[in-house]
Write a structure and sequence with these properties.
The complex is a heterodimer of chains A (about 600) and B (about 210). Chain A is an alpha+beta fold and about 600 residues long. Chain A is built from eleven helices and 31 strands. In chain A, strands 1, 2, 3, 4, 5, 6, 7 and 8 form an eight-stranded mixed sheet that branches. A four-stranded antiparallel sheet of chain A has the order 10-11-12-13, with no helix packed on it. Chain B is mainly beta. In chain B, a hairpin with a 5-residue loop joins strand 1 and strand 2. The chains are: A alpha+beta (about 600), B mainly beta (about 210).
């Protein structure tokens, strides 16, 4: 379990106590003297308590009201729904007169929004009917969720509290014809209650305004899972969901996909943190993947004393077939039939725990080079020289990334500092090569967990210039992944960055502001729940716009790897994004 | 809720905790050991590009919106039908899961297999500019690695309903350009740097 990542999460919650943590707890608990800035006060205790109460009320409403409300809606019962509304309930709903409709692939998206169709005032019964009519297309056995996106305490009189909430109501299901359907409404509500018992009793909603509702109806599922059919369900890799608690890991393995034997089919190389490695070759005869590592001359177990479990295909000898880095070793592909170790590992010397690598010919000599990402040194968590352990705002506590230049004689030489391509020491997680400008030299965007990201513009002379500060693409956002491609069809690639996000963080950040914190802390808090970001330029690498909210691709979750591809084949690049930190129990609340 | 910060501090609650309903207040580093959820069961997302200015959330319709604490995703044509599929790496619920593309047919694609000569052999860093039906599509050839998962270095270009590519410009990693005209779709095409002719490749399929 990496501690840094958890520290970042807790940064979101630190809103409740950043100041006094740094000024008191650290000093009290650390045996070493830590230099604390004078006058460092942090968030006031009253504000901390206010945030605590808001989060507690959110939990109570989501748990006791939201779940029951969803259950009653799934039964389509207006009688039971009445039990959630105060006697004087007032509702506002969009008129369902002229929908905004978007057709894409086999999906029809229909939206009614107050801003475009106007609104109607309704009583509790009318509101209940509106909701039930809205979700009628979603199968009754589908899933539903009620979420509080923002919350504010607005009135406290005569021991009765009134809270204003922005809420999201979603339902999804697949009908008997196999058609996937989702419903989503965004709106705001007021809840009035005197205590938790009132919330549990349920009749707390004083008003509810639905600003928009959207139904997406699909005529078919767009992908189908073939994991079992192709034999990928039998990989003997430890799984967080079935292993013992002490074996849970934030990351388990790295994977790389290519056609190593030139048969036209994609093969899979994989190395794990448990020092296993696999080469999964597509076997056309049986229609399944088979582990052929041993057959190819690679043992399934490997040794590393630096937690190096890289997986990367790279045609380093430029003979047309892909060679392989697996674990921390470089292997030469021998006609797609075997892999042999390269003498002295081709000069490659990886440091502790490489997070991944990306391949390109950065110096234009016709040979593929290698950029390797690092989070931290082996002892990076230690308290050294009286300084606290690494923190998300640091730009000098990580390990240095490597840029290995291919010399063409079977060896590489490390050039990151010389080429000004280290991206600082910012705990790098991922990177993408791209053509950010119109020359043919590949540029590099580096996604860093700490401090800001880098956009390294290739100067064409073997060096790079980091333009992130000028261009606005380096925002602090605890980044974990990145992808690039021409999203808007103007011929210039966009950069899509996967960042931290949490529902709790978004709620809390709306209740605090920069003056509540010492300089720089608020920006870190905002970055820590930034969500994914989409940077777009018209060709000037010093001028980017951030468009994720506008495009509707910001709120992915605790995101890791994004990918761009044209899934529906219409000539426009689509997005896929992975997300989710650690899940253990579907019956427990989220942390 | 988890406690704020620091791997060693112990902070008392500031208000009520509804422990009977599962609300918790714990040290963040204790959460995995206590099997407490943290940004849990979030579903992977698939967004369809509507017109370059907005996306439609097709996550649920994709049926690839798994909630398995996914980390990596590698996009590639695994079944040989030219359409991009998804190989998703996760730390829960199965390490590698393959989702095959079954989007409605009707649009056309081409896979370009570029072979560098002066450029690196696999032409990584090349740019393809396809013009079809009045639209220009620009794609760069790299082996993407969004996070802990390297995808294949392949140029898969979709051209919508166009049944030919009117003009294809390849900018090789050396910077040199070659132009080809009137290329077919729904196939793989091999182009060797400097060669005047392109070569149609026989398709392979796992189906």
């Amino acid at each position: 379990m990496k501690q840094h990542r958890v520290l970042i999460l807790t940064l979101l919650i630190l809103c409740a106590g950043a100041g006094w943590w740094q000024s008191r707890q650290w000093r009290r608990l650390s045996p070493l003297k830590v230099d604390i800035p004078t006058g460092f006060t942090g968030l006031g205790e009253a504000k901390q308590k206010e945030i605590w109460d808001a989060e507690h009320v959110t939990f109570e409403i989501e748990t006791h009201v939201g779940r029951k409300l969803v259950a009653e809606l799934q039964k389509r019962s207006t009688d039971q729904l009445a039990g959630f509304f105060h006697a004087g309930f007032s509702g506002v709903v969009p008129q369902r007169t002229s929908a905004t409709t978007v057709e894409k692939s086999s999906i029809t998206e229909t939206t009614y929004a107050v801003g475009t169709t106007g609104s109607t005032n309704v009583d509790a019964d009318g509101f209940s009917r509106f909701l039930i009519e809205g979700i009628h297309a979603v199968p009754e056995n589908g899933n539903g969720r009620f979420r509080v996106l923002q919350i504010a305490h607005v009135v406290d009189e005569d021991s009765v509290d009134t809270w204003q909430l922005n809420v999201l109501l979603t339902f999804s299901g697949t009908n008997s014809a196999g058609e996937p359907i989702t419903y989503m409404s965004n709106g705001s509500m007021r809840c009035r209650f005197s205590d938790d018992d009132d919330i549990v009793a349920g009749r707390i909603i004083e008003s509810w305004r639905i600003d928009s509702e959207t139904v997406r109806s699909g005529r078919q599922a767009l992908m189908h899972e073939a994991t079992s059919r192709v034999g990928l369900d039998r990989l003997p890799i430890t799984d967080n969901w079935t292993c013992r608690s002490e074996m849970v890991r934030q990351y388990r393995f790295q994977t790389a996909v290519e056609d190593f034997n030139s048969d036209g089919f994609l093969d899979i190389a994989l190395a794990t943190a448990d020092q296993q490695r696999f080469v999964l070759q597509w076997n056309s005869q049986v229609g399944q993947y088979e582990d052929v590592a041993e057959t190819l001359g690679l043992s399934n177990a490997f040794q590393t004393d630096r937690r190096a479990y890289l997986a990367c295909w790279i045609d380093f000898d430029n003979d047309g077939d892909v060679d392989l880095i697996l674990g921390e070793s470089l292997f030469r592909n021998v006609e797609g039939k075997s892999f042999e170790p390269v003498a002295n590992n081709g000069g490659l010397r990886f440091a502790f725990n490489p997070m991944g690598c990306v391949v390109a010919d950065y110096d234009g000599d016709g040979l593929l080079d290698l950029y390797v990402l690092y989070q931290r040194d082996k002892n990076g968590d230690a308290i050294r020289d009286g300084k606290p352990p690494a923190w998300v705002g640091d730009d000098d506590t990580g390990a240095v990334n490597q840029l290995w230049r291919n010399r063409g004689d079977g060896t590489f030489i490390e050039m990151a500092r010389f080429a000004k391509a280290t991206s600082g020491k910012r705990h790098s997680f991922a990177a993408t090569w791209l053509h950010a400008n119109d020359d043919h030299y590949p540029d590099l965007y580096v996604a860093n967990d700490f401090a800001r990201n880098s956009l390294l513009i290739n100067q064409g002379d073997g060096s790079f210039e980091d333009v992130a500060d000028d261009s606005g693409v380096g925002d602090f956002a605890t980044s974990m992944g990145v992808a690039s491609g021409d999203i808007n069809g103007d011929g210039v690639p966009e950069i899509y960055v996967a960042n931290m996000y949490s529902k709790m963080g978004r709620r809390i950040i709306s209740q605090v502001s920069a003056p509540d914190y010492p300089a720089g802390i608020y920006e870190q808090l905002v970055g820590s729940c930034a969500g994914n970001r989409m940077y777009s330029t018209q060709g000037d690498v010093r001028q980017f716009q951030e468009l994720s909210e506008q495009l509707g691709v910001n709120a992915v979750g605790w995101a890791y790897a994004p990918a761009v591809a044209d899934f529906d084949g219409d000539g426009l690049l689509d997005l896929y994004a992975t997300t989710g930190f650690l899940s253990f129990n579907r019956h427990k609340p989220d942390g | 809720m988890s406690q704020p910060l620091d791997r060693t501090c112990k902070i008392e609650p500031l208000g009520k905790i509804d422990s009977a309903a599962g609300e918790f207040w714990t040290h963040p580093f204790a959460m995995p050991q206590q099997r407490d959820n943290l940004s849990a069961f979030e579903t992977n997302r698939l967004f369809l590009n509507v017109d370059g200015t907005r996306f439609l959330d097709a996550s649920f319709a994709s049926q690839a919106s798994i909630d398995s604490d996914s980390r990596s995703v590698m996009v590639g044509d695994f079944d040989g039908d030219l359409a991009p599929d998804l190989l998703v790496g996760s730390v829960g619920g199965g390490p590698l899961r393959l989702f095959l593309n079954q989007f409605p047919e009707g649009n056309h694609r081409v896979e370009l297999r570029l072979r560098g000569v002066a450029s690196n052999h696999r032409a990584i860093g090349a740019r393809a500019i396809a013009e079809a039906n009045g639209k220009t599509i620009v794609r760069d050839l790299f082996a993407p690695n969004g996070f802990m998962g390297q995808g294949p270095a392949r140029l898969n270009i979709a051209v919508g309903t166009a049944d030919r590519i009117d003009k294809l410009t390849i900018r090789w990693p050396t910077g040199k350009r070659q132009v080809f005209e009137d290329l077919p779709v729904d196939c793989a095409i091999k182009i060797v740097e400097g060669a005047e002719e392109f070569e149609l490749l026989a398709p392979v399929t796992s189906e």
